[in-house]
Amino acid sequence: MEETHLPRAHTFSLLILTFSLLSTLSLSTFSPTDNHLISCGSTVDTTVDNRRFISDSNPDSPLLSSEQTTPLTNQNPSPYSVEIYNSARIFKKPSKYAFEIKEPGTHMVRLHFHAFFSSNLDLSGAQFHVLVNGYVALSNFSVGKVRDIVVKEYFIWADSDKVVISFVPAKNGNYGFVNAIEVISAPKDLIADAGFLVNGNKDEKFVGLTKQALETVHRINVGGPKVTPFNDTVWRTWIPDYEFLKSSKDLSKQMYFDGRIHYQYGGASREVGPDFVYKTARVITNTNGSVINVNMTWEFPVDEGYKYLVRMHFCDIASISLGLIHFNVYVNGYLAYEDLDLSSITDTLASPFYVDFVADDDSSGVLRVSVGPTNKTMAYGVDGILNGVEIMKMNNSVGSLGGKICAVMVLKSWPRGNISVLVPIVAGVCLFLSLAVLMHRRTVGRRNPAAWSKLPTEVPGAGSNYGNQHLSGKA
Ligand SMILES: *[C@@H]1O[C@H](CO)[C@@H](O)[C@H](O)[C@H]1NC(C)=O
Ligand SMILES: *[C@@H]1O[C@H](CO)[C@@H](O)[C@H](O)[C@H]1NC(C)=O
Ligand SMILES: *[C@@H]1O[C@H](CO)[C@@H](O)[C@H](O)[C@H]1NC(C)=O
Ligand SMILES: *[C@@H]1O[C@H](CO)[C@@H](O)[C@H](O)[C@H]1NC(C)=O
Ligand SMILES: *[C@@H]1O[C@H](CO)[C@@H](O)[C@H](O)[C@H]1NC(C)=O
Ligand SMILES: *[C@@H]1O[C@H](CO)[C@@H](O)[C@H](O)[C@H]1NC(C)=O
């Protein structure tokens, strides 16, 4: 203990450092009202990245009918493995978890799978269906021989007091499993209700996004590294864009910005996208002060037969001053946003903005997004930029994210045993769906591109949320 007396200046700067660290942490900490983290098949609670996953063997666990399930432990875990992936719960019969919901609204549901090999069972042999609140989330699902970790993420609107997750073996003699489950309230502004339908007829709106079941199929940090749940404001994973970028890498430049991101009223909040996503981008490079007439394009494999919510994140970290950025945005070859002028929307550089598009099923198995110059693009300006993309599959007309069979039929496919406990929950939804198909509704939006920037404010209650962001941006 030589340095009991720190020089005064040091103590002072230490204080400032501690204070600014604390305020940085508190700015980015979202605390969900509903926050259920469950470690399945484990007898003890497990902490991952400061988040406590509760054992589902507790008497007050959300797991119902546990006598029909078996806990399983990996006897030979890798020394580097994360604890929650070394235990699983096995379902030989339809079984369910019911999570109490305090606050109605969009909830994020994550299911974690790791098909480990235990002395008495190889989980890669499991095949099963998963239902979430009456939607088919997974059908005939099998992790297969991949020993990697598989995480499935959904956004589900819950207005009842429960989120119910059911596991149904694909057939008698088969079984389902899961290693961990998260059911968390989503930030209020995360899923806005309206998006722009891109189908060739310009200016059509898709309304009712919050009431769709969404499954995240791609979440990309363009031009940047992988962002892990630890570094994301709502524990998401963002992966780099390399494998999806189709245009020549010579045309684009990866950007990294070291300054501060300005989260502002009307733009994207930290929960919509973290600093890590907005601080990196890919831009179309001007050569010799002249506009190069090319698009930058990414292609994402998707399943046919579904609509997709395509969220594109923009943050002008490339311009040297305001007013030098103009570009077009295309989805599946359709002009989705004409002459996006970030400066006029955000009024300041390095301020994030996002747009939600809804892509119709085009049965090509590929979803394509591009950015490219417009006739307003300037030499020495930025010909196109993209910071992030999220692609979310929307439930189809029978309420499924995995095929044409609705939840009631999935349960009925189970040949024997007492499933009557599960049927009433989903029956209502299937009935409702049949009606909804008949009434398939779309609302035609206004022919006013300026309305696009106002999208996020259409969420009820978002105002106060943005207000906070605004204040914290000034702190
Ligand atoms: C699962 O696969 C079988 C065999 O291909 C098929 O008959 C059944 O309809 C599928 N179930 C679901 C829920 O998709
Ligand atoms: C979080 O981000 C920091 C800064 O980029 C990085 O050093 C760290 O490895 C990341 N942590 C995780 C768990 O990804
Ligand atoms: C840019 O200018 C340099 C020198 O003026 C020239 O050698 C080069 O070919 C030009 N590049 C392009 C892509 O036009
Ligand atoms: C960019 O892509 C769109 C849609 O495919 C196309 O109409 C446009 O001509 C392309 N622009 C350039 C510069 O290639
Ligand atoms: C720019 O393009 C728009 C539509 O694509 C067109 O209406 C406008 O006339 C063009 N302007 C110029 C200067 O070419
Ligand atoms: C998704 O399911 C809901 C019923 O919960 C239904 O109203 C909606 O039309 C479905 N979405 C699509 C795109 O068919």
TrEMBL record:
The UniProt regions of compositional bias labelled Low complexity, in chain numbering, are 56-66
**Signal peptide from the UniProt entry:** 1-28
Malectin-like domain: residues covered:
38-393
Annotated membrane-spanning segments are: 419-438
InterPro entries membership: ANXUR1/2-like, Malectin-like_Carb-bd_dom
GO MF term list: ATP binding; protein serine/threonine kinase activity; transmembrane receptor protein tyrosine kinase activity
**What name does this protein carry?**
Malectin-like domain-containing protein
| Bias type Polar residues, positions | 67-76
Q: Subcellular localization, per the record? A: Membrane
* Region feature Disordered, mapped onto this chain: 56-76
Where is this protein chiefly located? membrane
Q: Which GO terms describe its cellular component?
A: membrane
Per the record's keyword annotation, is Transmembrane helix included, yes or no? yes
- Domain of life of the source: Eukaryota
Give the UniProt keywords, A-Z. Answer: ATP-binding, Glycoprotein, Kinase, Membrane, Nucleotide-binding, Serine/threonine-protein kinase, Signal, Transferase, Transmembrane, Transmembrane helix
Give the way it sits in the membrane.
Single-pass type I membrane protein
Per the record's keyword annotation, is ATP-binding included, yes or no? Answer: yes
Cross-referenced Pfam families, in alphabetical order?
Malectin_like (PF12819)
